Amino acid sequence: MGFVVRACTPKDLKDVMRLVEEIAVIYNVPVNKLATSVEVLEKHGFGEKPKFECFVAEVPPEQKSKEGHTIIGYTLFTYTYNTWRGKNVYMDNLYVMPEFRGRRIGKTLSSVAAAAAWEKGYTQLRMHISADKPELIEYQKRYGAENLTETEGWNLFRIYNPVLRGMAAQSKF
């Protein structure tokens, strides 16, 4: 099977959004609850100061998915900073449609993201993986990823809109 991994362009965003929606379904997130849209992705990824980078995996038309898609996977990542380690990259999503898994597409997407970060002087890649997906945890471990929850006891927290708004209201700036 042939495939290419290339930088995402604005014309690919409809397909990226389709894949984002597939992930939402897997994690039982109602699609109508997503704050992301094609327009938001275009503004944040291709505007004056892009907030993320994205690469897509594409197969030739003769190898398209059962539904007729040629964009069959993607990775989306942002650049962040860690006071202990310096510049690092945070991979928000790495996804390959189920019918195309097992063909090293995910590994290639990961490698391309790593190369983009390395070329810019970034020294580590971070991501979160659901405890409900042990196969994905093992997949990352096979390629040398360290599970910080196991080795260092780190936990990932999030603060959503209502609480974030309340915290901001308490600011004295």
UniProtKB/TrEMBL annotation:
This is N-acetyltransferase domain-containing protein. GO terms for molecular function: N-acetyltransferase activity. Residues 3-162 form the N-acetyltransferase domain. Belongs to the acetyltransferase family. The keyword Transmembrane does not apply. Keywords: Acyltransferase, Transferase. PANTHER family: DIAMINE N-ACETYLTRANSFERASE (PTHR10545), THIALYSINE N-EPSILON-ACETYLTRANSFERASE (PTHR10545:SF51).
